[in-house]
Amino acid sequence: GVNGARELRNLDKEAEITLISKDDKIYSRCILHHYMEGIRDIKKLEFIEDDFINKNKINWIKGTEVTGIDVNEKKVIVSTGEEFQFDKLLIATGANTFFPPILNLKTAKNAIGFRNFDDCEKIMEMSKTRNNIVVMGAGLVGIDVISGLTHTGKNIALVEMKDHMLSIQLDKKAALAYEQGFEKKGVKQYYEKGIKELIVNEEGEITEILLTSGEKIPCDLLIVAAGVRSNVSFLEGSGIETDKFRLLINTFGQTNCEDIYGAGDVTGRNPIWPTAVKEGIIAANNMAGVKSEMTDFFASKSTMNFLGIPTMSLGINEPVDETYIVNIESDNKGNYKKIIH
Asked: Cβ–Cβ contacts within 10 Å for residue 212, how many?
């Protein structure tokens, strides 16, 4: 959303631009683990210049949630009851933590997602008085969490249904470097195992986790990082097309409603930062009358640097069939390169 607003201002110096956000801060979710580690303060999480809002003449309605859209009247309705008229609208409401249908998960008082700054603060506060922290999911979000918590000295366990961490981005050999690194940090890892049940006490707090393997793990704080669901519930009945999990857009960023566009995690296309930024810029161009199309969703890269191991992945991490050629280069210094073509 912010990158879309920036692009709109670059394209149109006179347009009235209103930014409505549930957050009252503009920050990068990708580096929240640095805040947890104490490496960055809130100021260093920002990805905009200090005078961004004023310089770009943006009317920022912060700490306010959109509750509905009137397509016919071209109005956005927010939680305060206020209504905002629009000529063009960009929906970039992101996604929420997905809580799988596991017994006691939705009601447990000490189970929390990791999606925004508020979640980050809650985890930091709760972890002060908890000793056994379990992270569900070993994707990018799950690894963010354990990276942010290893310095605490708490007992940390990672549970993942796939056979290695970062399974979307990395193959098993590349992932092994991170797995061994986190093992040295004291993180206990459980792969090819799911959570079957949460065992709770009379206060409704998790005390143990029962895995599908039959093992039990002590737990007094569960952090859920097992995927997301696009935040589209407020669009119900609006006439703007969604499916069960996402806002539907075309390659111009346009929804089924001519003047309404979408970008980022809400579209459910490729939930990584570069794709979200690109979608926002494409949508902004078309909103401003500059025809622009995204055709290379496949080629969105992930870059990461956990434990001082810089990594980049692009496309698939394993060949789909025998028609692909795989070239691998590695050395005894820990460098690893794999090209699938």
From this structure: 14
Count of Cβ atoms closer than 10 Å to residue 17 Cβ: 19
Mean pLDDT calculated for residue range 80-101: 93
Domain that holds residue 334: 301-340
Find the DSSP H helices in the chain.
Answer: 2-11, 32-37, 52-55, 117-127, 140-149, 172-184, 273-287
Specify the residue for token string 């199309």. 293
Alpha carbon distance 113, 47 (integer Å) = 23
Closest CA to 117 of 232, 24, 1, 2: 24
- The pLDDT value given to residue 296: 65
Q: Is 221 exposed, middle or buried (0-12, 13-18, 19+ CB in 10 A)?
A: buried
Strand 111-113 with 95-97, pairing: unpaired
Same domain, 289 and 273: yes
Closest of 293, 211, 280, 215 to residue 252, by C-alpha: 293
Q: Compute the average pLDDT of residues 257-269.
A: 88
Asked whether residue 40 carries a pLDDT value surpassing 90, the answer given is no
Quick one: 206 and 221 in the same domain? yes
Residue 255, token pair as written in the block: 């929804």
Give dist(CA 194, CA 97) in Å, integer.
17
pTM here?
0.88
